[in-house]
Design goal:
The complex is a heterodimer. Chain A has eight helices and ten strands. Chain A is an alpha/beta fold. In chain A, strand 9, helix 7 and strand 10 form a beta-alpha-beta unit. In chain A, helix 1 packs parallel to helix 4. In chain B, about 25% of the residues lie in helices and about 35% in strands. Chain B contains two helices and six strands. Chain B has a three-stranded mixed beta sheet with strand order 2-1-6, with helices on one face. In chain B, strands 4-3-5 form a three-stranded antiparallel beta sheet, with no helix packed on it. Classes of the chains: A alpha/beta, B alpha+beta. Strand 3 of chain A pairs antiparallel with strand 6 of chain B, so a sheet runs across the interface.
Chain lengths: ~280, ~110
């Protein structure tokens, strides 16, 4: 039983640090709490219940946000990040847009300038964590099993093993999926959506939830622009239609073009003290 | 596909509330779901049928209030119903919108006995 959140083991989610130190899987569960009511049933503690007798119906005004539990845990993560001055970024995209390549390149290029930690989210394998570990960065892999997104609870447990340093930057690479991760706050300060030029330039319109909830959009693989029918001005226009606050940076991890803009964005966020 | 996680959260909230009221049956559940909440109703219904098995919601009537999304244009102050984030203002065609309604995703009430 986990002392932090009361969850037990036995779910399909596996969290492990690179180097094969295992953490227990996380899984939320509740226990139905039923009291027997009858001549033989005894209560040895003093409390009252609203009793519903047969045939009597009661309307309970619940008025509770379905994502309430996730949002509360996300706020806990956010408090942890604030206290340690950790810049947490949630990286989201479809599979194959180059999230891991962008991270590898960033970790190598900014080595010594900032301290980093990474949480990798995938359904299966530690392939991405292995790639990140090869750069010398602390990394924890979350395998969601059949899950299509990371949630705040998984991040809470990954943080317990990862223990990112104070004043560091934490990259959380979400499961490659432009739909489901949009709904789940992880406690990040910024959400970064990545799209590559080999995808359609109408992607912001097709997956508006993700572009609406992000603060930065990185357009990757710009070195391939001469070979693909991707209209970069059109994608920017479409993204701005969905979210007029969205910042856009164009990069190529292969040629390095545009990367200084991304690095400057990162540095500006690290220097910016969180205002409450 | 996240609809399954959403249904699991709904079951958890409803059962907690029903247990707290010492009820044994949830006869009805009422949900508020905005059109911009990110929920695909077909996927929710599909996940619902699978997930409520052997829970207190197994035989409950599910009522869904679909809440239409509304926005105010920040350029001309027009209030209007939007269907998607990329809709433009019907008066000035602008995209600077403040969304004021339609992201709801909550358990409104349960009827227990």
């Amino acid at each position: 039983m986990c002392a932090t959140c009361g969850c037990g083991t036995g779910s399909n989610t596996i969290i492990q640090l690179a180097g094969n130190e295992h953490q227990h899987g996380d899984h939320a569960h509740t226990h139905a709490h039923n009291h027997p009511h009858g001549p033989t049933a005894r209560h040895d503690h003093d409390h009252t219940h609203d009793h519903n007798h047969e045939g009597q119906k009661t309307l309970i005004d619940v008025e509770k946000d379905v994502l309430n539990q996730n949002n509360m845990l996300a706020q806990r993560n956010r408090g942890y990040f604030d206290a340690k001055n950790i810049l947490a970024l949630n990286l989201v995209s479809s599979p194959g847009s180059g999230k891991t390549s962008l991270l590898e390149r960033t970790l190598k290029d900014l080595q010594g300038q900032m301290e980093f930690a990474v949480i990798e989210g995938d359904q299966q394998t530690t392939n991405d964590a292995d790639r990140i570990a090869a750069t010398g960065t602390k990394v924890s892999q979350i395998n969601t099993g059949k899950g299509c997104h990371l949630d705040a609870h998984m991040i809470l447990h990954a943080l317990q093993g990862l223990k990112p340093a104070e004043n560091s930057v934490l990259f959380i690479e979400n499961v490659g999926n432009l739909v489901c991760p949009a709904m789940f706050d992880l406690g990040e300060r910024e959400r970064v959506v990545i799209i590559s030029v080999t995808e359609g330039d109408d992607k912001p319109l097709k997956y508006p939830d993700m572009f609406h909830s992000s603060t930065l959009c990185i357009i990757n693989k710009t070195d391939l622009l001469p070979y693909v029918p991707f209209d970069i001005e059109k994608v920017k226009l479409n993204a701005k239609k969905v979210n007029h606050h969205l910042e856009i940076i164009e990069v190529s991890c292969t040629s390095g073009e545009g990367l200084p803009l991304w690095y400057n964005w990162l540095k500006s966020k690290v220097l910016l003290p969180e205002t409450i | 596909m996240h609809e399954l996680s959403i249904v699991m959260s709904i079951i958890k909230i409803a059962e907690q509330q029903a247990n707290a009221a010492n009820a044994t049956v949830i006869e009805e559940i009422e949900l508020d779901i905005g059109t911009l909440s990110g929920i695909e109703m077909g996927a929710l219904d599909f996940a619902w049928d699978q997930a409520v098995n052997q829970t207190m919601l197994q035989d409950s009537i599910k009522k869904v209030n679909r809440i239409n999304a509304k926005a105010i244009c920040m350029d001309c102050n027009t209030e209007f119903v939007i269907e998607a984030y990329y809709d433009s203002c019907p008066v000035c065609n602008g995209h600077l919108l403040d969304i004021i309604q339609g992201k709801e995703l909550r358990v409104k009430s349960i009827l227990v006995s």
